[in-house]
Amino acid sequence: MTRVSLIAVVLTGALLAPRATFAQISCSREGLQRAVDLYVAAQTKGETSGLPLAMGLGYFENHAPADINTGLIKTAMTIDHHRSVIDAATCQTFTEVIVTNKDKPYVLGTRLRVNHDKIAEIEILWTTTGYWLFNADSYLKYATTEKWEVIPAAARDTRSTLVAAANAYLDAFLEGKKDLVPWGYPCNRTEGGAHTGNGSPTDSCDVGVPSGVNIANRRFIVDETIGSVQVFCTFGAGNANGGSGAPDSHLFRVENGKLKYVHTLTHLLQANFRGGGPGAGGGRPGGAGGQNPLPGGRTGGAPPNTQP
């Protein structure tokens, strides 16, 4: 083979070879994990140029359309821990992100939707200092001691079982029918940073669940391999008698059909409650502290004193 021919072959191969950066994005489990990895890298840098974004990308924060160019995804973060739910059936992922930086702490819930080889939607529900029961250090402490390992195939619950368990838990907030919830023991719940359970085999997630609150606008991301179901929802339908309607996230771990872990994030300023803060007599119904239901209000925009 002549030198010219060899160069031609090499150049042709280089042109035809897929670009490793974006080519692995797909709706397979491996492709979705690749999307998550790219998101975590982008959030760490506060830079989205490494993301394979679709034309017409949908970018949302706290259930509302937002501008990605000024969004929280552009804030660089030192991520202490993250955990993801991979849903190949709907081409979606959910990633729980914990940042304990003293100046800019966050706990995020980020949804990605992949369309073929591009990220078509990015949705971030964020909480930070001043939001409902927020404590990133506490959230990190408990999230990192829990076991969310892969469940053997023969022991996995079905998608419908996982969704039914999540719905039963959330339904209890409206009619108070807690006997229909598949409570597991032990079960631990972390809400914003507040935690129930002390390591006892009788630890229960059946705490602080009131009636009369409609957990509305539910959207599900399901991962049977780790027994997990993520629900984006609103805490109430947005009226004084049925919860604030604040953007909300509930992440469940289910084992053998029973609840094992519950993680909750609510994008709602603590100061929006009567009394102005924790311990002052106000709070979201169902909080880990067992506070009474009072009307709050949905909030949006940038977190206070945290944008660069």
Backbone CA Rg: 21 Å
Individual helix count: 5
Which structural category do the helix and sheet elements fall into?
alpha+beta
| Low-pLDDT residue intervals, each spanning 5 or more residues | 6-23, 274-308
Output the strand order for the largest sheet: 2-1-6-5-4-3
Terminal Cα span: 58 Å
Topology:
Blueprint: H1 3-16, H2 20-23, H3 29-45, E1 53-61, E2 64-65, E3 81-87, E4 92-99, E5 106-115, E6 118-127, H4 136-143, H5 159-175, E7 188-191, E8 194-196, E9 215-223, E10 228-235, E11 246-255, E12 258-266
Parallel strand pairs: 1-6, 7-12
Antiparallel strand pairs: 1-2, 3-4, 4-5, 5-6, 7-8, 9-10, 10-11, 11-12
Description:
It is a single chain. By secondary structure, the protein is α+β, with helices and mostly antiparallel strands. It folds into two domains: 18-128, Nuclear Transport Factor 2, Chain: A, CATH 3.10.450.50; 147-272, Roll (Nuclear Transport Factor 2, Chain: A). The chain has five helices and twelve strands. It has helices at 3-16, 20-23, 29-45, 136-143, 159-175; strands at residues 53-61, 64-65, 81-87, 92-99, 106-115, 118-127, 188-191, 194-196, 215-223, 228-235, 246-255, 258-266. The strands form two sheets. Strands 2-1-6-5-4-3 form a six-stranded mixed sheet. A six-stranded mixed sheet has the order 8-7-12-11-10-9, sandwiched between helices. It is globular, with a radius of gyration of 21 Å. The protein starts with a helix and ends in a 42-residue tail after the last strand.
